[in-house]
Amino acid sequence: MLRHGRGTALPGALGFALATALHAGAVLAGLGLLIQQHRDSLLYLRWAGALYLVYLAVRALRSSAGPSATRTAAPVARRLFLDALLISLSNPKGWLASLLTYPAFIDPQRPYAPQALLLTLTAVAISLSIYGGYMLLAHRARAAFAKETQLNRISAGIYLLVALGLVLLPH
């Protein structure tokens, strides 16, 4: 996002929002019960997330240092959307938060579907607002980085630190 400017904030935020909708939909459809029966699934998800972050770090390091204006907007937007979606879907904390949060707001005395829909839409709106705001703020931080290679190295370092954190978390 920093590399490509303010115009890419929306695709990234939409990727996170779609992941939020998928988290909510899966948990509210009963995935929580399956995960409770197969607790190792969160460990596998953690490793998948860590590997994906390592991939993003390598991609950031290999990224060309040429001006971002030479890249076309559509592939950049698509890539940022998919990166945001995959980062969020491979984050075990996101799944765990969904598993713990959504069921607590369901009233068994009321119709289930309207409650699930309202929870999902509310979560998506919150996600879109938060991540859209983060990405617009990131655009302002772009000026702090003089060179794109410097930005790529910082991004790679952050991805690697988060991947390491995922791997080293206690079970």
Automatic annotation (TrEMBL):
Signal sequence region: none
The keyword Disulfide bond is annotated on this UniProt entry: no
Pfam families the record matches: LysE (PF01810)
Primary residence: membrane
Topological type in the membrane: Multi-pass membrane protein
TM region(s), chain numbering: 12-35, 41-61, 117-139, 151-169
A Gene Ontology molecular function term of the record: amino acid transmembrane transporter activity
GO annotation, cellular component aspect: plasma membrane
InterPro entries: LeuE-type
Keywords annotated in UniProt: Cell membrane, Membrane, Transmembrane, Transmembrane helix
Keyword Membrane: yes
Cell compartments where the protein resides: Cell membrane
Source organism superkingdom: Bacteria
Full protein name: Homoserine/homoserine lactone efflux protein
Organism of this sequence: Pseudomonas oryzihabitans
